[in-house]
Write a structure and sequence with these properties.
Length: about 775
């Protein structure tokens, strides 16, 4: 099919490459086996391939500056010179060493105590992590990166006229950490840097710039709306010949609509997947405003209903200037379905990854330009795929539907309140004050990955693989005993990913080989495809958890992934309400929890790191979500005795606005990320008199830096000022699978020493009293 003249955009592309080439480049550079020049050259080739890929598929609004070596929010921090003092930056262009130190921390080296990484949080309601800007009152911003202009010129040199992408100033400030002051007060000092970048892009020949302000999907107060008006007006005035495409996604404009329609921009992008009702804006929008219509889902992998979309778009032809786009940048979907040679053909026909979404957009553009007869075959294929999915017996399981329908309130309540359970658990576990544990996973070393791959490819028998996993598990148990941890874990050496491992053992899930999506930096995940009703054919974790318990007298904690996280971190079916899908998963996890208890596990951790991530962006939608999310967690965990201790883990999220929800989950112990925020995340707990136990993370597992005993003690002391010491557990921020054993051992030894020092200090205080 020839490329249509009707405009097609992508808004932004996956950065990692079809074979995770970016991951290899970054990790080679961090390991010292790839120098800066090789990293730069490899990144340049990835960008070139993305531009060529889009051009070949008929995309005419190709973005530049959507590529990042780590994170686009960190890129913006570097662009405006907001580098925290601890990284020793002295002005000028920010170099790669400083850039990566901001993202990953800088390890101590001799007299250099190193520097902890910047905080990390989720990008709106996605599983993509961003590096949180750190801003100070009266901060001076200065242009410190030529990346946006350089990549525009780089694309132009390769024959591609692109539309550079910039994260908008207001969204950037709203994402920032600004202790004790309003970050929007820095907008007047920030705008001149953006204006200079726009001047340079104009001089380089750019005619359009995409300004991403996804904060427009939030409930914005008058102060923030005024900041947006100030910001966009200043940017438009800075370079009058440069057209601005204002981009909003992850939801509708809502009450921000009137503000946006009055802004001096040449184009406006609307997410019509999450908010299809926004098509009515066409009647209110200025006649000269180009509307970018996000008609293909940029967050999920289901094939678009081309016939239905055409029916929406055809009445618009000739009424105004429009272009077609995904609902949001394609960063959140895998790159190309054609790489999936092993995927079940029936399921594959229901899907569209990034490349196929570009094809869908160009097909729609051709249909709008030349009529439906020009794309008759594509429309027929779309209808056939949708019909196949709707009628497939693999999608619908009557037994699962009936069981879900029979769930009642008694299944979501523990037998006794926490105060009574706590006494039973203390008798059963006999743990000291400030008990130590980990989140679950231990290093997935090269030998572990090699054995898993060999087994997957039939080069290592099931018996030999089981012997290997048993040996690794025993080593992990012995190392934990040697380190002195109080509650152990089996290490998860048999698991590939905390969602994929369980999904592979549940009905209703499908998996890819190359469906990688970036989570942060070099960290990539392959979200399962949740296409049908969910059931558990057999126990999933009992074998290795019970084996690990048999190796030690110390309590062993079983580790499961919770139903909300299984939902959020999958590409979820869109033909059934999300609460119903989550309830099905919860019932499957409930069966596993009960089997672990029966196998002798006295503690079971059901991780829900994605619960906060799933909170809707609009206030009006939150209560309903939180109600069913809590119900599903409790459904999964409430079927055990008082003496069985239920743990959960949540990471990289602001908890203040859902603290009541965390209490309603009624987990006996919650472990949370808090080291990067210096225990700030605990501020919400005392105000609500949170009664249950908490494990605030005392070191950042996403950084290679090993904190000292005094650093961890200082964090625990801060925690003890907010919480009763009897509530506090001591643990890392997150799992340890991405780290190396040497650094893990040193960090955990320091952690155990810190816990013991806190116990000793407590005994001294009690004795003095």
């Amino acid at each position: 099919m020839s490329s249509p003249t009707f405009p097609v955009a992508t808004l932004g592309m996956p950065r990692i490459g079809p074979r995770r080439e970016l991951k290899s480049l970054l990790e080679g550079h961090w390991a010292g086996t790839l120098d800066a020049a090789a990293l730069t050259a490899g990144a340049r080739e990835l960008r070139a391939a993305n531009w060529a890929r889009q051009s070949a598929r008929g995309v005419s609004r190709i973005p530049s500056n959507d590529f990042s070596l780590y994170d686009h929010v960190l890129d913006t921090t570097v662009m405006v010179g907001a580098v925290p003092a601890r990284y020793g930056w002295d002005g000028g262009e920010v170099d790669a060493e400083t850039y990566f130190a901001m993202a990953r921390g800088r390890p101590a080296n001799g007299s250099d105590k190193g520097a902890p990484a910047m905080d990390m949080t989720k990008w709106f309601d996605t599983n993509y992590h961003v590096i949180v800007p750190e801003l100070a009152r009266g901060m001076f911003f200065t242009p410190s990166s030529s990346k946006a202009v350089a990549e525009y010129r780089e694309a132009k040199a390769r024959g591609h006229e692109t539309r550079p992408v910039l994260l908008g100033p207001v969204t950037y400030l709203l994402l920032a950490k600004a202790n004790g002051f309003d970050p929007l007060s820095l907008l007047p000092g920030l705008l001149p840097v953006y204006q200079e970048v726009l001047h340079e892009l104009t001089a380089a020949g750019a005619s359009w710039v995409q300004i991403d302000e996804p904060c427009l999907g939030l409930d914005l107060d008058e102060r923030t709306q005024a900041a947006l008006k100030t910001s966009v007006t200043a940017l438009a005035q800075a370079a009058p010949s440069l057209k601005l495409m204002l981009t909003s996604y992850f939801g509708g404009l809502g009450h921000n609509e009137a503000l946006v329609l009055g802004l001096p921009v040449a184009g406006l992008h609307l997410d019509l997947v999450r908010a299809p009702g926004q098509l009515q804006l066409l009647s209110d929008a200025p006649s000269d405003l180009t509307l970018s219509l996000g008609v293909v889902d940029g967050r999920n992998v289901w094939r678009a209903d081309l016939v239905a979309i055409l029916g929406q778009l055809e009445p618009l032809i000739g009424r105004r200037s429009i272009e077609l786009a995904p609902s949001c940048p394609l960063l959140h979907v895998p790159l190309d379905l054609d790489l999936e040679t092993d995927l079940d053909p029936e399921i594959a026909q229901w899907l569209a990854f990034g490349a196929q979404k570009m094809d869908e957009l160009t097909t729609l553009a051709t249909g709008l330009e030349k009529g439906r007869t020009a794309i008759a075959d594509a429309l027929e294929a779309s209808e056939a795929a949708i019909r196949s999915r709707r009628l497939s017996s693999r999608v619908n399981n009557p037994v699962v539907r009936a069981r879900s329908k029979d769930v009642d309130a008694t299944m979501t309540r523990r037998t006794s309140p926490f105060a009574e359970r706590r006494m039973a658990q203390r008798d059963a576990l006999s743990l000291p004050q400030y008990p130590t544990t980990t989140i679950g996973s231990f290093p997935q070393t090269r030998s572990v990955r090699k054995a898993r791959a060999a087994h997957a490819h039939g080069m290592l028998s099931a018996e030999d693989y089981a012997r290997f996993i048993a040996a690794e598990t025993e080593v992990a148990v012995r190392r934990q005993e040697e380190i002195g941890l109080d509650m152990l874990v089996h290490g998860e050496f048999e698991r590939n990913d905390m969602v994929q491992y369980f999904g592979e053992r549940l009905d209703g899930y499908a998996f890819t080989r190359s469906g990688w999506v970036q989570s942060y930096g070099s960290r990539c995940v392959r979200p399962p495809i949740l296409f049908g009703d969910v059931a558990r054919p057999a126990p999933m974790t009992v074998k290795w958890s019970s084996y690990a318990q048999s190796l030690t007298d110390r309590p062993m904690k079983g580790i499961l992934t919770g139903p909300v996280t299984m939902l959020q971190w999958s590409f979820v079916r869109d033909d059934l309400p999300r609460p119903e899908v989550c309830r099905q998963i919860a019932l499957a996890i409930r069966d596993e929890v009960q089997d672990l208890e029966a196998a002798g596990l006295a503690a079971i951790q059901v991780d829900e790191p994605a619960l906060r991530e799933g909170v809707p962006l609009r206030e009006a939608d939150r209560a309903a979500y939180l109600a069913w999310a809590v119900e599903c967690f409790r459904l999964a965990t409430a079927g055990v005795s008082d003496a069985t201790q239920i743990h959960t883990h949540m990471c990289y999220a602001a908890f203040n606005d859902i603290i009541d929800t965390i209490g309603a989950m009624d987990a006996d112990v919650i472990a949370i990320e808090s080291s990067r925020s210096r225990m700030e995340l605990l501020d919400a707990f005392p105000a609500t008199r949170y009664p249950n136990e908490i494990g605030p993370g005392v070191y950042d597992t996403h950084s290679p830096r090993v904190p000292s005993v005094p650093e961890m003690v200082a964090l625990l002391q801060q925690a003890s000022e907010r919480l009763d010491p009897s509530q506090i557990w001591v643990n890392p921020d997150c799992g340890l699978k991405t780290r190396e054993w040497d650094e893990v051992r040193r960090a955990l030894l320091n952690m155990v020493a810190a816990a013991r020092r806190m116990r000793d200090e407590g005994r001294v205080i009690v004795a003095a009293e």
